[in-house]
Design a protein that fits this description.
Layout (H helix, E strand, L loop, with lengths): L2 H10 L34 E2 L4 E2 L17 H10 L4 H4 L7 E5 L3 E7 L5 E9 L2 E10 L2 E2 L6 E7 L12 E8 L12 E8 L3 E8 L14 E6 L8 E4 L14
Parallel strand pairs: 11-13
Antiparallel strand pairs: 1-2, 1-7, 3-4, 4-5, 5-6, 8-9, 8-11, 9-12, 10-11
């Protein structure tokens, strides 16, 4: 079993441990955020590319076969996968899972080269089902209503956590449009899930009310207590799928 597969298996086995929430540590001179409620239900952790969430185990088991189904939606998917050109070459030819479908939308995901995830979206319009979007998928965690996604990174001005580390500061960044404002006082979490090989640390943010401009959002410093020393386990951002290295924020 590869390291990535072991990491994903750890995500699926979420019942092994659940951490408590911590307080956000504001910039100097501010006031601490109130204790927050958990960002997610750790027994029902789900991720999504577009509209339909899926459990992590969907992509760690056997390859999907949804493209072989005998229905118009699968037929449109097969025809799309047979397309030629750079936009189509990266799409897996097989192994697709149907993550969800309703009267107007259908969504498929599959694992491609380098363990990257890909998505194909179809919509039902006046001319029937048509592919409207496809490409690489970078899933985010499915959050409760009223919560927005966030990612976190290590503080580059401090030593990276090592085996003896139990408490460290995470720099949490809101991903939704927020007019370039910090998330001080609105950070939810961290939620911590541990296994024999990993610590997953997950954050969310309560969005500000009203319309917001899309700018780069500054980070908010949050104190994280793992509850025990890190040891030789990997420390990962569990808000991404697959869980990501906080030292290397993705594009």
């Amino acid at each position: 079993m590869t390291r990535l597969m072991r990491t994903l298996a750890a995500v699926v086995a979420l019942v092994v441990a659940v951490g408590a929430c911590a307080e956000a540590v504001p910039p100097s001179g501010g006031t601490p955020s109130p204790a927050a409620t958990p960002a997610i239900d750790p027994l029902d952790l789900r991720y999504k590319c577009e509209a339909f969430p899926f459990a992590p185990g969907l992509l760690t088991g056997a390859p999907g076969t949804a493209e072989q189904a005998n229905d118009p939606i699968a037929a449109h998917l097969r025809a799309h996968l047979a397309g030629e050109g750079p936009d189509f070459d990266s799409l897996p030819d097989a192994g697709w899972h149907l993550t969800g479908q309703d009267a107007q939308h259908a969504e498929f995901v599959a694992v491609g080269g380098d363990r990257r995830l890909f998505v194909v979206v179809l919509k039902n319009g006046p001319e029937g089902w048509q592919v409207t979007d496809h490409g690489e998928c970078q899933p985010r965690i499915e959050l409760a209503e009223g919560l927005g996604a966030a990612e976190w990174a290590f503080d580059p001005a401090k030593p990276k956590p090592g085996p003896a580390t139990q408490v460290f500061d995470a720099l949490v960044t809101e991903l939704s449009c927020n007019s370039g404002q910090p998330a001080d006082g609105r950070v939810v979490g961290p939620q911590i899930v541990s296994s024999a090989e990993t610590f997953l640390v997950i954050f969310a943010v309560r969005p500000r009310p009203g319309g917001q401009d899309c700018q780069a959002n500054p980070s908010t410093r949050v104190r994280v207590d793992l509850g025990e020393p890190l040891g030789d386990r990997k420390l990962l951002d569990g808000g991404r799928f697959p869980p990501g290295d906080p030292a290397q924020p993705r594009p």
